[in-house]
Amino acid sequence: MGRTTDQVGLAMAWSVLARAGRFALGIASSVIVVRSLGEHDYGVLSLVRTVLMFVVVVVGAGLGQAVLKFLPALRVDRAGEEARALLRGVTGADTVELATNDPDATYASTLAARCSA
C-alpha cells in the first residue's frame, strides 16, 4: 500500500478512537452529574441542555455548508468584496456594526474598545 493510504488509515483509526473516548467520557460524566445533583437541579440542567441544543441547531442552520458552497465560487469570480461580506455576515461582524451604530466598527476594534474601557 502507498504512503497516503497508510496515513488515511491511521487518521481514521485516531478519529474512531477519539469518538469512542468522547462517548465513554460523556457517559461517565453523566453518571457523576446525575449522582451529585438533586432531582430538581438535574431537571433544570436537562431543560437548559435541551434549550441550548435547539439554539445550536437554529443558529447553525447550515452556515458552514453555505460558506463551503459560496466562498470558493466568489473567489473564482474574484468577487472579493462579496466574499468579505459573506464572511462578515457569518462571523457576526455586521451585528457589531449595528449594535455600535458605527459602520466602520469591526469585531476586533469593538473588543479592543471594550477591553480598554
If you average the pLDDT, what whole number results?
A: 76
Fraction of residues in helix: over 70%
Spatial separation of the terminal alpha carbons: 60 Å
Estimate the global geometry from the Cα principal axes. Answer: flat
Number of domains: 2
- Return Rg in Å: 22 Å
Q: How do the SSEs run, as a string of H and E?
A: HHHHHH
Weakly predicted, low-confidence segments: 96-101
Number of helices: 6
Structure classification? mainly alpha
Proportion in β-strands: under 5%
Question: Would you report the number of β strands?
Answer: 0
The major pleated sheet works out as: none
Give descriptors for this structure.
117 residues, mainly alpha, 2 domains
Please give a structural write-up.
With 117 residues, the protein is mainly alpha-helical. The protein folds into two domains: 3-60; 63-116, no CATH class. Helix content is 85%, strand content 0%. It is built from six helices and no strands. It has helices at residues 3-36, 39-60, 63-76, 80-91, 93-100, 107-116. Helix 3 (63-76) runs antiparallel to helix 4 (80-91). It is flat. The N and C termini lie far apart (60 Å). 0% of the residues are buried. The model is unreliable at 96-101 (pLDDT under 50).
Task: Please outline what is shown here.
The chain is mostly helical and 117 residues long.
Topology summary:
Blueprint: H1 3-36, H2 39-60, H3 63-76, H4 80-91, H5 93-100, H6 107-116
